[in-house]
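Appendix B. Chain record.
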Amino acid sequence: MLPAILSSEINKPNIKFFIFDSKSDHQVYGDKDFQEYHWDKAKFNKVNVGDFFIYRRPQKASEVRNQFYFYGFGKIIDIKDTGESSKKNRTKPAIGIIDLGYRFANPVLQSDLENFEWKFKQRGSTWEHFFQQYGMNEITNIDFIRLLKMGVKGDASFYTDFQLALDRRDEDYSAEDKIALAKVRGNGYRKFAQQVKINY
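Structure tokens predicted for this chain:
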């Protein structure tokens, strides 16, 4: 089961769910995990305030050889126009501000999903062309919840940590404090990344 407050957020009317690809080189792409996500609305204009997403590290950027993986989730609470739109180049850059961000203690690896029954799209015998090349995919509520449950399975601290994040948000902390939980979880993630590099 998921925390009641999270379930109520997920089940609100008109909420959509996505997979956001995130590269490891954020200096190039401008993303800040669990804080903000950058994309071009001219190429993908489906995300709205209130929508949820799960992070995916694509295979080409993955620390795990020959595997992509899912490593956390969050909610878009604001979408800002960067003011750098260009009619000539047909671009409309946007920044999604993230709340309720949580890093999985145990990332969901590609190998964990071989028998996963996707609802948003039927997968063939391989993963080739399954995810959109642009790096943003809309999925179903069912896909999202199943991936989320896989990500927090065995994480005994998830319920207490998530409630802590909610308490901090409700106390009207600054933006820096709102994402403190994700920073804490980051230490474990770095250990995971280091370990898989050793193993491979």
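Further analysis of this model is presented in Appendix C.
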